[in-house]
Write a structure and sequence with these properties.
Elements: E1 2-7, E2 13-16, E3 23-25, H1 52-61, E4 65-68, E5 92-94, E6 99-101, H2 107-116, E7 120-125, H3 132-143, H4 149-156, E8 167-170, H5 185-202, E9 207-210, H6 223-232, E10 238-245, H7 252-256, H8 259-279, E11 287-295, H9 300-309, H10 325-340, E12 345-351, E13 360-362, E14 368-370, H11 374-383, E15 387-389, E16 392-394, E17 397-398, E18 406-407, E19 409-415, E20 421-427, E21 434-439, E22 445-455, E23 474-476, E24 480-482, E25 485-490, E26 494-503
Helix pairs in contact: 3-4, 3-5, 5-6, 6-8, 8-10, 10-11
The structure holds alpha-L-arabinofuranose.
Alpha-L-arabinofuranose (AHR) is lined by residues 27, 70-72, 172-173, 292, 351-352.
C-alpha cells in the first residue's frame, strides 16, 4: 500500500475557524422555499406551514448562517412586498428565473424559520433595481427597536423585538450580464460604498459583504475586485466569492482535482484585497465570504426544458441536481480547502440548502432525504470547529487534464476547544487504498475515538427517496497508534474523518 505522510503540531496554527464557514443559502427559486422548507398541508407542517421533517434535517447540519432571499432573485425584489398580511402581498414576475413570486413566505416568516432551525439570517439587499435608500430602510425596519415609522411597522406586523440581523450582502453578482440591472465595477463600488455607509449609520453593529466578481472565469474577474474595492474598501467587511464546479467532461480524476482551483481562487482574491489595502495605506485586512459554492451541472438541460414549458410558473423543479458520490468527494476536498484558508475565509455558504442544488431533497406530500453531499458538510460542520492547524502533507500524486501533481491524499486538521483533534482526509485514487501515516508527536499521548468513512464502489452512485442510504458514512475505529504516530488506511475514493482524543 502506498503511504501519504502528515505532520501536525498544536503550535502550527492557521487560525480560529469561524463557524459561519458552514453556512448555507435559501433563495426564492424553484422549490427551495415553496415545496422545500414551506409546504402547508404536508403531514409534518407546523402552524406556519414549515415542514418539521426538513427543519430536523437542517438542524442536524448545524448551519450557523443562511443567506436569503437571493441570489439573482434579490436584484429585482422589493422587500416591502414580503411583509404585512399575506393575503395583501402582491404577486410579481421574477425576472431572474422567469417565474411568479407570490410572497407567501416573506421576511417575518423567514426569521421565524431561522429561529426554529437555530440559525442566523444573512440578508441580501437589492442593489440591482434599487439602492441605498431601500437598504437603509430595511435595516431600520429589521433592527431599530421602535419609535419610527418603519420600526413601528415591524411591531405592527407582529415582531415586537428587533430581528437583529447582523450580516448583510450588498447585492448579488453585480457584474453578471444575467443580473437584473448589472453594473460596472466603478458604478457598483460607489453604490456599495454609499449603501454600506447608510446601513451602518442606522445600525453600527452590522457587517456587510460586497460583491466580488460573479465567477473566476468572468472577463471582469480581478479588475472588478480591484476597482470596486478602491471605492468601498474602508466601508465593507467582506468580499464575496462564488464558484460552482461541474464534471461535464466526465473525467473523475480531473473533477476531484478542482479543489486546487478553489485554492488558487482564494489566494488570488486575498492578494487583490491586500493590494488595495496596501495602495490605500490601510491597516485593515479584508476577509472573504465564499457565499455560493457547490457542484452545479446535472440539472442544466432539464432546467432549459422547464423554463421553455412553464414560463412564469410557480415553485418549478428548477436546479434540482441529483448528486452522486464523486460530487460528495469533491465537496469534502472543498471543505478541506476552506479550512486551510480559515485565517481569511470567514463565511462560506453551500448553495443551496433544500431542493435547489441542495444537500436536502423533498418530495411534495412525501419524504425528505440527504443527498450524497450532505455527509461531508455534516461531518466537517460537526467536528471542524476550533483551531485550524497547518498540516504538512506529502502524498503520491497524479497528473490529469487540467492539473499536474495532484496529491492523491489531501488532508487537514482542526483542534477543538476540549483538545480533541479531528483529521479530515480524502483519498482521490480510484484504484488504490493508501496509508495515512501521521506524525502527531507534538500532541503527546492520544487515542483513536472514531474513523468515519464515506465510500462507495461506484462514483456515480446517488441517494433517492427510495434508497436514501445508498451513499452513507460508515463508523468504526480502524487504525493504530505507536510512538506518537497514527496509521490509518484510507480506502480508495473515500472521504475520512478521523477523531482523536488527546490526553493532556
Ligand atoms: O445559486 C443559484 C444562482 O447562482 C444564484 O441565484 C446566483 O447568485 C448564482 O449565479
Amino acid at each position: 500500500m502506498k503511504t501519504a505522510t502528515l505532520i501536525l503540531d498544536r503550535d502550527f496554527t492557521i487560525g480560529e475557524v469561524d463557524k459561519r464557514l458552514y453556512g448555507s443559502f435559501i433563495e426564492h427559486l424553484g422549490r427551495a422555499v415553496y415545496g422545500g422548507i414551506y409546504e402547508p398541508g404536508h403531514p409534518t407542517a407546523d402552524e406556519n406551514g414549515f415542514r418539521r421533517d426538513v427543519m430536523e434535517m437542517v438542524r442536524r447540519l448545524d448551519i450557523p448562517v443562511v443567506r436569503y432571499p437571493g441570489g439573482n432573485f434579490v436584484s429585482g425584489f422589493n422587500w416591502e412586498d414580503s411583509i404585512g398580511p399575506r393575503e395583501k402581498r402582491p404577486k410579481r414576475l421574477d425576472l431572474a428565473w422567469f417565474t411568479t413570486e407570490t410572497n407567501e413566505v416573506g421576511l417575518h416568516e423567514f426569521i421565524d424559520w431561522c429561529r426554529e432551525v437555530h440559525t442566523q439570517p444573512m440578508y441580501a439587499v437589492n442593489l440591482g433595481t434599487r439602492g441605498p435608500d431601500d437598504a437603509r430602510r430595511i435595516v431600520e425596519y429589521c433592527n431599530h427597536p421602535g419609535g419610527t415609522e418603519l420600526s413601528d411597522l415591524r411591531i405592527k406586523n407582529g415582531a415586537k423585538d428587533p430581528f437583529g440581523i447582523k450580516l448583510w450582502c450588498l447585492g448579488n453578482e453585480m457584474d453578471g450580464p444575467w443580473q437584473i440591472s448589472a453594473k460596472t465595477a466603478a458604478e457598483y463600488g460607489r453604490v456599495a460604498c454609499e449603501t454600506a455607509k447608510v446601513m451602518k449609520w442606522v445600525d453600527p453593529s452590522i457587517e456587510v459583504v460586497a460583491c466580488g466578481s460573479s465567477m473566476l472565469d468572468m472577463p471582469t474577474f480581478g479588475t472588478w475586485e480591484y476597482q470596486m474595492l478602491m471605492e468601498c474598501y474602508e466601508h465593507i467587511d467582506y468580499v464575496s466569492l462564488h464558484r460552482y464546479y461541474n464534471n461535464h467532461a466526465n473525467n473523475t480524476p480531473d473533477f476531484l482535482a478542482r479543489s486546487m482551483d478553489l485554492d488558487d481562487f482564494i489566494t488570488t482574491v486575498v492578494s487583490i484585497c491586500d493590494a488595495v489595502g496596501g495602495t490605500k495605506h490601510s491597516r485593515k485586512k479584508l476577509n472573504l465570504s465564499f457565499d455560493e459554492w457547490n457542484v452545479w451541472y446535472h440539472s442544466l438541460a432539464q432546467d432549459e426544458e422547464i423554463k421553455k414549458r412553464d414560463r412564469w410558473g410557480r415553485a418549478l423543479p428548477l436546479l434540482e441536481d441529483i448528486y452522486n458520490f464523486e460530487d460528495a468527494l469533491l465537496i469534502g476536498t472543498l471543505l478541506i480547502t476552506f479550512l486551510r484558508h480559515a485565517d481569511r475565509v470567514k463565511i462560506a455558504c453551500m448553495a443551496q440548502l433544500v431542493n435547489v442544488i441542495a444537500p436536502i431533497m423533498t418530495c411534495a406530500g412525501g419524504g425528505v432525504w440527504a443527498q450524497t453531499i450532505y455527509w461531508p458538510l455534516y461531518y466537517v460542520s460537526k467536528y471542524g470547529r476550533g483551531t485550524a492547524l497547518r498540516p504538512i502533507v506529502k502524498s503520491p500524486s497524479y497528473d490529469c487534464a487540467d492539473y499536474e501533481q495532484v496529491p492523491y491524499v489531501d488532508a487537514t486538521a482542526v483542534q477543538a476547544e476540549d483538545g480533541s483533534l479531528t483529521i479530515f482526509a480524502i483519498n482521490r485514487s480510484l484504484e488504490e487504498d493508501m496509508e495515512l501515516s501521521a506524525d502527531l508527536r507534538g500532541f503527546g499521548s492520544f487515542e483513536i475515538v472514531e474513523h468515519v468513512m464515506l465510500h462507495h464502489e461506484d462514483v456515480k452512485a446517488v441517494n433517492t427517496e427510495l434508497h436514501p442510504d445508498n451513499v452513507h458514512p460508515t463508523r468504526g475505529a480502524s487504525g493504530s497508534v505507536a510512538d506518537g504516530r497514527l496509521s490509518v488506511a484510507l480506502k480508495k475514493q473515500s472521504f475520512n474523518v478521523i477523531r482523536l482524543k488527546v490526553h493532556e
